């Protein structure tokens, strides 16, 4: 009796296994494979500069949690470059930033994002990204040129800030009322410094000594008229300085 029950149990198990095998065979004999995400369509559309096709093709890769990391990075970089070409700067920066979070060893992407920061007018962030690109690849030509250019610009801005509101002369020695007025007004002080610098440039660029002397006499005459005219009714010091600067810069004269 016990042996008969064992046979019945074995038969039930066998039938169950056969049923499981039949179900497995019905689905191809093995578990369904995870569908692969194809990045090719995204890369092709971005290379062709096709915004209409690139949008959905790249989103299908970027927004899919199952996308392999290398393909995700490729799609982000490609879409970021496309967005940059179409002046969608903020979206391009977002894609480049996400790519760099996934792989912070990409000098081309750091340089590309630096150029985007530059378009937005954020020079400190731009120079930071150019520097990051150069730390990864010291011979990166575009990053090197960008870094040098922006560094010179920041240096120039720093130099301007250092002298902002200061005239061409030492205010501690100011004696004339017009000099004191210039020292007491940042706008007039900046104008005075610009006039002085423009006159120095004109003298450097003079064709010969005679022409340089002629230009200097004009500057001396301007200073004399300025000193004599200041404080008199109708005399506009700011306008007089602006007119002199305009002439020195070649709008009406040289």
Write down how many β-strands occur, each being a DSSP E stretch of 2 or more residues: 0
Task: Report the average pLDDT across residues.
Answer: 83
Can you tell me the overall shape?
elongated
Helix content: over 70%
Largest beta-sheet characterization: none
Strand content: under 5%
SSE pattern, N- to C-terminal: HHHHHHHHHHHH
Q: Spans with pLDDT under 50 lasting ≥5 residues?
A: 1-27, 29-34
How many helices in DSSP terms? 12
- Rg, alpha carbons: 37 Å
Q: Report the structural category.
A: mainly alpha
Our measurement of the CA-to-CA distance between the termini, rounded to an integer number of angstroms, reads 124 Å
Task: Write up what this structure looks like.
With 254 residues, the protein is mainly alpha-helical. It has helices at residues 2-26, 40-47, 51-62, 69-85, 89-102, 107-120, 123-136, 141-163, 177-183, 186-204, 209-229, 237-248. It starts with a helix and ends in a 6-residue tail after the last helix. Mean pLDDT is 83; it is low at 1-27 and 29-34.
Gist of the model:
The model is unreliable at 1-27 and 29-34 (pLDDT under 50). This protein is mainly alpha-helical and 254 residues long.
Descriptors:
254 residues, mainly alpha, 12 helices, 0% strand, disordered N terminus
């Amino acid at each position: 009796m016990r042996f008969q029950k064992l046979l019945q149990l074995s038969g039930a198990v066998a039938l169950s296994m056969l049923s499981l095998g039949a179900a497995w065979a019905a689905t191809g004999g093995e578990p369904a494979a995870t569908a692969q995400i194809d990045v090719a369509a995204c890369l092709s559309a971005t290379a062709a500069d096709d915004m209409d096709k690139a949008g959905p093709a790249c989103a299908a890769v970027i927004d899919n949690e199952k996308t392999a990391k290398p393909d995700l990075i490729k799609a982000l970089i490609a879409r970021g470059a496309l967005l940059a070409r179409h002046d969608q700067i903020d979206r391009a920066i977002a894609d480049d930033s996400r790519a760099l979070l996934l792989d912070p060893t990409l000098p081309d992407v750091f340089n590309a994002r630096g150029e985007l920061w530059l378009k937005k007018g954020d020079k400190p962030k731009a120079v930071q990204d150019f520097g990051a690109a150069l730390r990864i690849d010291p011979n990166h030509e575009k990053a090197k040129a960008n870094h040098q250019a922006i560094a010179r610009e920041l240096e120039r801005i720093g130099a301007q800030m250092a002298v902002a509101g200061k005239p061409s002369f030492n205010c501690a020695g100011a004696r004339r009322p017009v000099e004191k007025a210039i020292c007491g007004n940042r706008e007039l002080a900046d104008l005075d410094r610009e006039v002085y610098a423009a006159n120095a440039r004109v003298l450097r660029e003079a064709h010969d000594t005679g022409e340089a002397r002629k230009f200097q006499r004009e500057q001396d005459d301007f200073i004399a008229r300025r000193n004599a005219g200041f404080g008199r009714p109708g005399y506009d010091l700011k306008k007089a300085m602006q007119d002199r600067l305009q002439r020195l810069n070649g709008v009406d004269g040289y």
